[in-house]
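User: Predict structure, ligand 2-acetamido-2-deoxy-beta-D-glucopyranose.
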Amino acid sequence: MPHFVLVPMLAAGHAGPMLDMARALASRGALVTFVTTPLNLLRLGRAPGDGELPIRFLPLRFPCTEAGLPEGCESADALPGIDFLRNFHDACAMLRAPLVAHLREAHPPASGLVSDTCHPWTGAVARELGVPRLGLETFCAFSSFCMRQMSIHSVFEGISDHKRPVRVPGFPIHVEMSRARSPENFSGFGKVFADEVMAENARADGLVVNSFAELEPLFVDAYEAALGKKIWAVGPLFLQRNMPLSATSGSDDATAVRCGSWLEQKKPRSAVLVSFGSLARSSQPQLVEIAHGLEASNRPFIWVVKPASLAEFERWLSDDGFERRVGDRGLVVTGWAPQKAILSHPATGAFVTHCGWNSVLECVAAGLPMTTWPHFGDQFMNEKLVVDVLRVGVPVGVKDATQWGVETEGVVATREDVERALEAVMDGGVVGAARQARAAELGRKAWDAVARGGSSDRNMSLLVDFVEQMKATV
Ligand SMILES: *[C@@H]1O[C@H](CO)[C@@H](O)[C@H](O)[C@H]1NC(C)=O
Ligand SMILES: *[C@@H]1O[C@H](CO)[C@@H](O)[C@H](O)[C@H]1NC(C)=O
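Assistant: Predicted complex:
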């Protein structure tokens, strides 16, 4: 059987899908080496049954000091500020020599590399070892392809107004994007890094997307045609082993228990989940607007809060009386919450999401409509897919992009925006019912894709065959 070496991007939202990829490959009998670092190894969530799978974890020392990072900064979400992102990528690239040294000694030898497309340096690793490299996109096909077109055509060159929308060239549908809302804005060195990633994607032996053929067929096909390489759509990766979503993460955790028993008391499809992912931090004035919107909506809610200042938020909570007024109707969680389990609970009716791809896919798999509230990165592109193409989303109407790590005082959506969007996504009359029906249908398609003989299941087998055949021809 083949030996796959998996190199995840060291960031909260990236390691999860790669670990799911490891499980999917290993449960097909492949040996997997999963590259990580000592601190990231501790954070990897383990699932029931992981112990029986042939996955070897390889923690490589992370060269913080050499790259000018504070000690212990082994993941992008642990960086003291956005200015350190370049150092962080430099540190990742320094893993090349130790990784190659390890893999030269590996038994059985590596058959192929699957690495996050954010690790362009892994192209050289594959070439040194003479094995194929497949890039795992953590964006969907729509946004990966959109990003590629913006990058290779340098669409923002010579445009000084960051808010001016520009048409994305060579894209299957009409899409406009401004620099402020594009992934280029995500980091101070956006274009340079994006170009490195594009160059290595063009040299890769193929790409893997955590999406499924039936979700975005037009964009998987168009991206494949433009790239001239195979693109395997193998998602949702978190469903690949057909485990119930409620069982996938730490169900004995105190917050999980609290959310679970709260949901048990609620009517079917009556509650909303509000959560903006692991990276974004919300300003205090923005949190106050969300709180008032939730209160006015009169619907049950679980609100997962990541405040720019936890102390300030907690002071506001105790002074304002918000929790007392909403009583048992609302649950405020600061920190981690079991998102997949909440979304798949029958009491949950909609998701107010930042549109990170993992969150969108989890909502799709749960068969629920969403209220879209993008912040940065691929999120504004994902919003277009969700709202305009899939038609399962209601935009809250975000007025401005936020920049990662820069917590503004600004309010991008008001309490009225929140209330209106919740009303539309949860009720919304005939239009809302049609949206809910489309979301439910997509949910069924997601499960069909990963079931035996489904498109993602077959794509995963084809991917394994491809790597084995490449090995045979070397
Ligand atoms: C990102 O967008 C904001 C808002 O338009 C802008 O102020 C900032 O300069 C942009 N950053 C980059 C790196 O382009
Ligand atoms: C993935 O599955 C789809 C649908 O079955 C198929 O058309 C496509 O060729 C497969 N992709 C690859 C790269 O083999």
